[in-house]
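Notes from hallway chat w/ T.B., transcribed later so I don't forget. T.B. wanted the structure written out for a chain they're using in a teaching module, and asked if we could keep both sequence and structure tokens in one place. Agreed to drop them here.
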Amino acid sequence: MRPTGWLALAVDVLLVAAVSIGAIKLFELGLREFAATAFWKDWAAGHAFAGRLVPALAIAAACGCFAGLVLGGFAGARALRLGGFAAAVVVALDFGGTLVSDGPRGLLTGFALAPVCIGLGLLAGAALGRKLMPDPAAGA
């Protein structure tokens, strides 16, 4: 039985919050682990700006896609709508944090595209996840 009314809204808000925070934390973990490798140092030294930006954006998109797949598994047919909300939350939180910590100049770097890549990955993952995984509300 699918929840309705306030309970359904509460479940959706909880899913969006969990996926948004999970995608951001997964991106932080991915960057931390990638930066710890010896490959990263050689690559960044040899390719300057693109050597740091391209892997960071790829990690961001992959983390968003994974979080979107998880959301698709839990939300089923509602996954794409909730993925859009989660993407908006990720972008708003990251841009807001950047504005508070670095000011408007912080948004002028290429790394400000990371939350946008997370959001696009969330949407792609949610679209795939709702098709690959059965809707739990549909019943067995």
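Follow-up for T.B.: Residues 73 and 133 are 5 Å apart (CA to CA). Might be a good example for the class.
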